[in-house]
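Hey, quick one: can you model this chain's 3D structure?
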Amino acid sequence: MKALQYRTIGSRPELVDIDKPTPGASEILLRVTAAGACHSDEFIMGVPEEEYYFKPLPLTLGHEVAGIVEAIGNGVTGVEIGESVIVYGPWGCGRCYHCAQGDEMNCEKGMRAPGIFSDGGMAEYMIVDDARHLVPLGDLDPVTSVSLTDAGLTPYRAVKSALTRLTPGTTAVVIGAGGLGHVAIQILKALTQSTVVALDVGEDQLEFARKVGADHTFVSDPAAVDSVKGITRGLGAEVVFDFVGIAPTTDLAAKMVATAGQVVVIGVASGAVPIGQRTVPLDVTGRAINWGSRAELMEVVELAKRGAIEIHVEKYSLDQATDAYDNLHAGKIRGRAVIVP
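Sure thing. Here's the predicted structure for all 341 residues.
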């Protein structure tokens, strides 16, 4: 079968032919119907050899996966052949305290996420380790829904974690209106009555943010601090969500958050917000988001079924997958790139 793999440290992904997998005991074989390309994949492929800690190469990419159940191994129950599903990505041990709550991304024994710590779904077929990691899609289109598993789930957890601060009349800032940020805007509009402000680097991105529901948009530069304070009576935003995570954006977040507000960093980069008596307004809290729980993914699917959120996708065939990653690397993707085998 065809698969897109990361094969050499520092190289770009390659389309190769590998053997079709066979499910073992408790495993499920999916015929992949869609797989999302993510900036996290770019992060993995940019880690130098001395710092690389993911699955030993070659690694089949793809941690956002939708598919049809093709075959099941011994002991699998509750799953039907031909069922359309999406894959919950943060695979944990299933037995520790965090996993027992569905928070497998915080597993005490570490995650085995597909496309990161095990082979993923950027291929014609994929093995899923356990039936609990499958969420039924029902009538949802797998191509437009596959990225609910990360681009939907991660911002959902970020927003949900801050809901107590997002009461009517408050302001939420979304830095970066790309693959995850454009979904965060929609989730904020669906779950709160807060004013939503989006920051990004170009007018095309800001127009996109307005299209998906942002009330105000500003260029993501130092002047954005005054712009945000100008619409908040000089107080700043109750919550700032940083979907970029580089030093310039975390610096913006620290400067525009209000007293007793919260900064939530989602972007996978090296930026940080120093929390101290003289670095941010008093009583500010900070949080770094790590994916989301199985229950939260089910909630995200329900939001999609109700039409409250919609992920903008650009479709590529598996033969075009390397082009998708080149465009992602160059910042040319609006929303999410989805590979359709």
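One thing worth noting: The domain at 153-288 is CATH 3.40.50.720 (Rossmann fold).
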